[in-house]
From TrEMBL:
Residues 8-229 form the Tr-type G domain. It is found in: Cytoplasm. It comes from Hyalella azteca (Amphipod). It comes from the Eukaryota. Plays a role in translation initiation. Ribosome-dependent GTPase that promotes the joining of the 60S ribosomal subunit to the pre-initiation complex to form the 80S initiation complex with the initiator methionine-tRNA in the P-site base paired to the start codon. Together with eIF1A (EIF1AX), actively orients the initiator methionine-tRNA in a conformation that allows 60S ribosomal subunit joining to form the 80S initiation complex. Is released after formation of the 80S initiation complex. This is Eukaryotic translation initiation factor 5B. The lineage of its organism: Eukaryota, Metazoa, Ecdysozoa, Arthropoda, Crustacea.
Length: 458
């Protein structure tokens, strides 16, 4: 079959699961990258996106039996979305899963179902999203002998008695736990009815066992179950993931383009810290295939990009952009004002959903998603917040935080996650007695403030 006549868009596949069960590492194995090792604290704190072309799928599924051929598939590749498993990021798991057509639920075979596994299952059930379970870290099964060049069924069958028993015991245990969640489940090669049973695929992100089977299974399921849903639609569905400065391009935004197309020169409207931003796409970029968009790299430039893809957009005025909401394209000049209102409403709704107290700390983060996660984390720690903002710490923020000095100086602090602190702002803070805590992981930020409170009491 000629690839050019493929009619479906790339399915969006979301990777979900409990913290440290191996979501990012599985994608690293697929991409041949080392994203996970570069993460602060070894945890994912943002949504990621990777374009996986058909050629890569063909390359990595050669060991699958019966033979899997990419020519059976009518879509041009996969767009895979990575999500954080840390409990505070339920907002990003929800956002990621709301964008996807199908999901991979990653379960550490040695740990089984844990709280965020169950939370993920709830999300998938609610949206009726089909999914497969990757029983990951199978290399940790007692005396496991891996072989990434073989079909995983053969690898399982070739295990010595001890390993096989340990493997079977763990699979059985996890199957029972899934049953308790109202799911029928079976190893994919023993699945009696793929329409009603969730398939389990043993994988190892370290040795590569089962990776080919996992990819092949997702592709076959997308083709069988989702073909109508994957018909390309011109109706734009596009979400901003990140705002980043890139050498040579200035401030850029990373977006997930789920449906529709973007063109160089398009007038786009998106949320900004000072109100909706209207600007024109100067460069339309994509990371190289199999590169994680959240990691800086080199980019290819395009005149036009059709969904589904992870895309980087360079344009003027993006330095005040806010990540986490939809991006709109104005087809005509006169649409701009309407779209500005729509974007403004999206933003006000998101901010209104966040309830602030009269007294509490001032919180800032780089993205709306990170801000929501941070506040979720502070709630569990009993830390009240009175002010919030997406964006770098500037003098105005310090002034707002300083207002707490009149009430309770333990709240005259700014907890800043992954944002710059302006020098002016720092100087003002030092003069006024406002303390700025700035960290790159949300839990360190919370912990440092809790320590500060302890000292404060003394
Ligand atoms: P969060 O994004 O923070 O939720 O974690 P994650 O699910 O993306 O897990 P991550 O990829 O960060 O992996 C967590 C740890 O498990 C890392 O130290 C990995 O090297 C290790 N790991 C992941 N997959 C495997 C595997 O298949 N086998 C073994 N032995 N270790 C693995
Ligand atoms: Mg991760
Ligand atoms: Na991790």
């Amino acid at each position: 079959k000629n690839r050019d006549i493929r009619v479906l868009r790339a399915p969006v596949i979301c990777v979900l699961g409990h913290v440290d069960h191996g979501k990012t590492k599985i994608l690293d194995k697929l991409r041949r990258t080392n994203v996970q090792e570069g993460e602060v604290g070894g945890i994912t704190q943002q949504i990621g996106a990777t374009n996986v072309p058909a050629e890569a799928i063909a390359n990595q599924t050669k060991m699958v039996k019966p033979a899997f051929s990419i020519d059976q598939i009518d879509f041009p590749g996969l767009l895979i979305i990575d999500t954080p498993g840390h409990e505070s990021f339920s907002n990003l798991r929800s956002r990621g899963s709301s964008l996807c057509d199908m999901a991979i639920l990653v379960v550490d075979i040695t740990q089984g179902l844990e709280p965020q596994t169950i939370e993920s299952i709830e999300l998938l059930k609610k949206r009726k999203t089909p999914f497969v379970v990757a029983l990951n870290k199978v290399d940790r099964v007692f005396e496991w002998e891996g072989n990434q060049h073989k079909d995983i069924k053969e690898v399982v069958q070739a295990q010595a008695e001890f390993a096989k028993n340990d493997f079977e015991r763990r699979v059985k245990e996890i199957t029972i736990r899934l049953n308790e969640q109202g799911l029928n489940a079976a190893l994919f090669y023993e699945n009696p009815d793929p329409r009603t049973y969730v398939s389990l695929v043993p994988t190892s992100a370290i040795t590569g066992d089962g990776m080919g089977n996992l990819i092949a299974l997702i592709c076959t399921m997308c083709q069988a179950k989702l073909a109508p849903q994957l018909r390309y639609s011109e109706e734009l569905q596009c979400v901003v993931l990140e705002v980043k400065t890139i050498q040579g391009y200035g401030t850029t935004i990373d977006v997930i383009l789920v449906n529709g197309r973007l063109r160089e020169g398009d007038n786009i409207v998106l949320a900004g810290t000072e109100g909706p931003i209207v600007t024109q796409i100067r460069s339309l970029l994509m990371p190289k295939p199999l590169k994680e968009i959240r990691v800086k790299g080199s980019y290819d430039e395009f005149k036009e990009i059709k969904a589904a893809q992870g895309v980087k957009i360079a344009a003027k005025e993006l330095d005040k952009a806010i990540a986490g909401l939809s991006l709109r394209v104005a087809q005509h000049e006169d649409e701009i004002s309407v779209l500005k209102e729509v974007v403004h409403k999206d933003f006000t709704l998101a901010m209104k959903a966040i309830k602030v107290k009269d007294r509490g700390v001032y919180v800032q983060a780089s993205t709306l998603g990170a801000l929501e996660a941070l506040l979720e984390f502070f709630k569990t720690k009993g830390i009240p917040y009175s002010g919030i903002r997406v964006g770098p710490v500037v003098k105005r923020d310090v002034m707002k935080a300083a207002a707490m000095l009149e009430h309770d100086d333990k709240y005259a602090v700014i907890l800043a996650f992954d944002v710059k602190v302006d020098r002016d702002a720092q100087e003002l803070a030092d003069r006024e007695g406002v303390i700025i805590f700035s960290e790159e992981t949300i839990y360190h930020l919370g912990d440092r403030y809790v320590e500060f409170l302890e000292e404060h009491k003394r």
